[in-house]
Design brief:
With 282 residues, this protein is mostly helical. It has helices spanning 2-16, 23-32, 39-50, 59-76, 93-96, 99-118, 124-137, 143-152, 160-186, 191-215, 218-221, 227-230, 236-261, 267-278; strands at 86-87, 90-91. It has one domain: Farnesyl Diphosphate Synthase. It has a two-stranded antiparallel ribbon with strand order 1-2. The protein starts with a helix and ends with a helix.
Length: 282
């Protein structure tokens, strides 16, 4: 996985290089190239590899996914949203630069993600399908809806079903679409399996975040801990406690394993990545 992460980082640098110089490009580079897990592009590439497909052809799609994820983090951290000071162990984009530059950097990364995929030499019909699904997942019916609901429930307590809905859209959509795009390329008949895995993994990932906000530390997480409780935010931990939250994670991973084994793929490649996610501390 480390080799894949290195390849992703190198290609991200190359894609940023031709952009016009200035504070917006600096802010894009600062946020996009910050130390990160690269989970979503790794999921996409791992799906392709599980079908023994040459992933190098599709590396720019992996990079586009990371661009969209990073844009969402920049905007999520803004004073009008979560107003966070720390991201990936460094000052957030608007703290390092300024709010206007951070907004433009997020906008530019979203735009660059589209252009990056448009410039790939693959079948045009497939390209349209991939772009359509990716921007559905990151748009008003997907990730943006999740952010909207997250903001709405800052002013009121959410119940468990409402919290699941927030997590499904805010976190799950981009994790699920990373696997869905791989399926659309490699084997569309397995699409529903990857969809289920993606959303279950996304929910498990967010529950992990809820737990880490309580038991983690700022140095490992790369962001402030205890902010959920400080902001009176509804989380899995606040609703059902740490022990039941951990059980929920185990159940979600069990469902992921069942769907993985239902497909004729190289299971080990996906299981390796899921094992890393299950054991994560940041």
């Amino acid at each position: 996985m480390e080799q894949l992460r290195t390849e992703i980082n190198s290609r991200l640098e190359e894609l940023l290089e031709p952009l016009k110089n200035g504070p917006v490009k600096e802010a894009m580079s600062y946020s996009l190239l910050a130390p990160g897990k690269r989970l979503r592009p790794l999921l996409f590439l791992s799906v392709l590899r599980s079908y023994q497909i040459d992933y190098h052809i599709y590396m720019d799609i992996a990079c586009a996914i990371e661009m969209i994820h990073t844009y969402s983090l920049i905007h999520d951290d803004l004073p009008g949203m979560d107003n966070d000071d720390l991201r990936r162990g460094r000052p957030t984009c608007h703290k390092q630069f300024d709010e206007a530059t951070a907004i433009l950097a997020g906008d530019a990364l979203l735009n660059l993600g589209v252009n990056t995929i448009l410039n790939i030499s693959i079948d045009s019909d497939l390209k349209v399908k991939l772009l359509n699904r990716l921007y559905e997942a990151s748009g008003i019916n997907g990730m943006i809806y999740g952010q909207q609901q997250d903001i709405t429930f800052e002013k009121q307590l959410a119940n468990l079903e409402q919290l699941k809905d927030i997590h499904k859209h805010k976190t799950g959509e981009l994790i699920a679409v990373s696997m869905q795009l791989g399926s659309l390329i490699a084997n569309p008949s397995d699409y529903q399996y990857w969809t289920s895995i993606g959303f279950d993994l996304g929910l498990a990932f967010q529950i992990q975040d809820d737990i880490l906000d309580v038991v983690g530390n700022t140095e490992q997480l790369g962001k402030k801990v205890g902010s959920d409780q400080e902001n009176h935010k509804t989380t899995y931990v606040s609703l059902i406690g740490i022990d039941k939250s951990e059980l929920a994670i185990q159940e979600l991973f069990k469902k992921c394993y069942e769907n993985i084994y239902a497909m004729r793929i190289n299971h080990g490649l996906i299981l390796e990545l899921l094992s890393i996610i299950l054991k994560r501390v940041n």
